Amino acid sequence: MSANLLLRATCSLTLLGYGWKLSGDSPAWYPRGVAWENEFFLILGILVLVPLFLPEKKTLTRVLDTLLIPASAFIIFFSYQKWILSGVGIGQFLEHAAQFGIPLLVWLTTFIGWNGAVKKLVMICASAAFIFHGLFAIGISVPVEWLNHPTPDKFFFMTAQCLGLESNATAGKVLLVAGLLDLVAAVAIWIRPARFPALIYMVIWGFLTALARPVAYFDASAVAESLFVWAPEFFTRAPHWLLPLILLKESGTFRNRINEPASVPELSRQEQP
Questions:
Q1: I need a labelling partner for 119 at 20 to 30 A (CA). Which of 64, 107, 218, 228 fits?
Q2: How many structural domains compose the chain?
Q3: Does any domain span residue 184?
């Protein structure tokens, strides 16, 4: 499975998630009565997969992928507005780096190919998501607004709901450990000997935290409604675990671990038959 296929699949899930999200629970700043943005995301979420089935159509691929630039710009705008309205630190904006970065990563891969520069950008996007998720999980409260990253109430709620915890105090301890691990992993992927375990952690934890929203807010008495509202939150966070998976595959660390032969001590001449 190539990096191009995984990048496009990740981008498709993200765009479909945003299109789905905007068609339902639109943010406060979103202009009412305007629907073209969510339709744009839904259509582009499908079109981004077309080059996988028509690999020989290079011109078509370049034309379609150029549409990913305004898609990325809109997610940047969405993330910026969410940050401004939140009144908390800049991490509220930068934690979305993997989400607004994925369309640009696909576009770059189309025009310059998968190379060291693109790989480093993928690492930056993944690191940013985990660094700022980690800061919010730990709860960094300072008087300077753009540096203030208090733990949101929803973090306590989701942690308690998913793990069956009875108090916010216990949930806070879990979040503290998870936040510290997030920070360690975000740094460790830049250190070659530590990269493999760090990426494994990011894939697993990124998937679980993306899944936490639809699980925590699931309402058995209104299955369709709760899934319609919360399932998009899982899809928009696909880059949080799929980008580390791409790095795991393309860095060679996974292949090396799997293909590495077991070490067998060499027999001395006296021991040899």
A1: 64
A2: 1
A3: yes
Give domain status of residue 273, yes or no. no
User: Within its chain, how far is the Cα of 64 from the centroid?
Assistant: 23
pLDDT of 22 reads 84
139: alpha, beta or left? (left if phi > 0; alpha if psi -120 to 50): left
Q: Where does the chain have alpha helices with state H?
A: 3-23, 36-47, 50-53, 58-66, 68-86, 91-94, 97-112, 116-138, 153-163, 168-188, 192-216, 223-236, 239-250, 253-259
Residue 199 neighbours by CB under 8 Å, 6+ apart: 185, 189, 244, 245, 247, 248, 251, 253
Residue 209: pLDDT over 90:
yes
Q: Does 247 map to a domain?
A: yes
Q: Tokens at residue 272, please?
A: 């040899």
CA 167 to chain centre: 28
Distance CA 110, CA 150 (A): 39
Q: How far apart are CA 12 and CA 139, in angstroms?
A: 32
Residue 259 falls inside a structural domain? no
Sign, Cα dihedral of 57, 119, 3, 100 = negative
SS3 for 149? Answer: strand
Structure tokens given for 271 = 């021991």
0.85 exceeded by pTM:
yes
